[in-house]
Design a protein that fits this description.
Number of domains: 1
Shape: globular
Membrane topology: Multi-pass membrane protein
Keywords: Membrane, Transmembrane, Transmembrane helix
Subcellular location: Cell membrane
Protein name: MFS transporter
Organism: Streptomyces nigrescens
Radius of gyration: 20 Å
Largest sheet: none
Distance between the termini: 16 Å
Helix content: over 70%
CATH architecture: Up-down Bundle
Number of strands: 0
Length: 407
């Protein structure tokens, strides 16, 4: 067998090894489909609120509550899954979340903000935890550390499809079904993807190993892991700012419908960045690599503050997304190194929670800045959040333990 002689060839070979493994195509595709609402609901909520005459503060609040619900519910569902099985909780979550999205679809969020707030929280909290469940299953459907690490890179890159396709699905559904079409489509897609994942053989047969002892704090008893999660809160805040600031910017430009395209272009940049990152070798000091990638993420957001006309904003939206999947893939690897024994599943759920909590705060912050100051100020806050993440990721004296690089 001829060995790949370039980094890109090696990345392509690793990606192909992952994608052709048994069960991987179904698990990965169903997970991506089931997670599409993550890229749909925030924009769909903004459009529904604006359709009913609400302001960006209400839109940002509902988007933030949806993200907060997901942030709180994720680790809870993850811990229950660890102690029971994947399918029942995944399917129950999809049904509950879909019902809450249907409630948001039929009510007037301006006339009933309290009910809308409750529905947004429930929709987020019941979101099926497909992402951590998928990462748990990688070790069961793939063989060797290198294959699992390659799967992390594929995961980080392909999940950007959620944020490419999600906003465009909202745009199409809104055009065909009206202002609430995005929420209805998100509910249906969530259920379809979750059914496909939960009925797959690896998900049905998976059982968690019984830990020898349980600590009430789970993975949060690792101080260095908590520091990583704090950095990811700031990364999530930067993404939340972008999601709400972008509709505010295009609304000021007189073309609210262009928000879907700019958010999708940001995700296209992230997808491209993820593909390029697949060629990177395994880092001996993953913490230092993460710091470098967070600096790049911050630099990518700075040009958005120029807020040029729409044609000039398009390439800036692409550039601002380039570093995100590399940041996430590096964080996946650090979680695997830092998580205490027997807590990896919950640790991945907390990682998602950290990102979601930051996303909620960033959404609320951007809503206030757009209404009270300007979209430019909101975009500037995204860069500030990225810089805060880089500062929090500064390495302690002791590096994370190295991972065995053997296949």
């Amino acid at each position: 067998m001829t060995m790949p002689d370039t980094a890109s060839d090696a990345a392509a070979a690793s990606t192909w090894t992952v994608l052709r493994a048994p069960h991987v195509p179904r698990l990965l595709s169903a997970s991506l489909i089931g997670r599409l609402p993550t890229g749909m609901v925030p924009l769909a909520l903004v459009l529904v609120v604006r359709h009913h005459g609400g302001d960006y503060r209400l839109a940002g609040m509902l988007t933030a509550l949806y993200a907060v619900g997901a942030a709180v519910g994720g680790p809870v569902m993850g811990r229950f899954i660890d102690r029971t099985r994947q399918p029942p909780l995944l399917l129950g979550g999809a049904i509950t979340s879909g019902a809450a999205l249907a409630t948001l679809m039929v009510l007037d969020p301006v006339g009933s903000p309290g009910l809308a707030a409750v529905a947004a929280v429930v929709a987020g909290a019941a979101t099926p935890q497909l992402e951590p469940c998928l990462r748990v299953l990688w070790e069961h459907v793939l063989h060797g550390e290198r294959a699992v690490r390659a799967a992390f890179a594929v995961d980080a890159a392909t999940q950007e499809l959620i944020f490419v396709c999600g906003p465009l699905l909202v745009l199409g559904a809104t055009h065909l079904l009206g202002s609430s079409g995005g929420l209805l489509t998100a509910a249906v897609i969530c259920l379809a993807g979750t059914v496909g994942f939960a009925t797959a053989s690896p998900a049905r047969s998976w059982r968690a190993a019984r830990p020898g002892s349980r600590h009430w704090a789970g993975p949060l008893r690792s101080g260095r892991l908590v520091r990583l999660f704090a950095a990811l809160v700031c990364v999530g805040a930067a993404i939340g700012v972008f999601t709400v600031a972008t509709p505010g910017y295009v609304d000021a430009e007189g073309s609210l419908g262009a928000a879907s395209w700019l958010i999708a272009l940001n995700a296209v940049g992230a997808l491209l960045g993820g593909v390029l990152y697949a060629a990177a070798p395994v880092a001996r000091r993953e913490d230092r690599r993460l710091l470098f990638l967070l600096v790049l993420l911050t630099i990518g957001y700075l040009p958005l503050t120029l807020t040029p006309a729409l044609p000039g904003m398009a390439p800036l939206a692409v550039a601002s997304g380039l570093a995100l999947p590399a940041v996430l893939a590096s964080a996946f690897a650090l979680v695997a190194r830092l998580a205490p024994e027997g807590t990896l599943t919950e640790a991945h759920a907390w990682m998602i929670t950290s990102f979601g909590a930051g996303n909620a705060g960033g959404s609320a912050l951007a809503g206030m800045l757009v209404d009270l100051v300007s979209p430019t100020a909101a975009f500037a806050s995204a860069a500030v959040c990225g810089a805060a993440a880089a500062i929090l990721s500064l390495s302690p004296r002791r590096p994370p333990r190295p991972v065995d690089s053997a296949a």
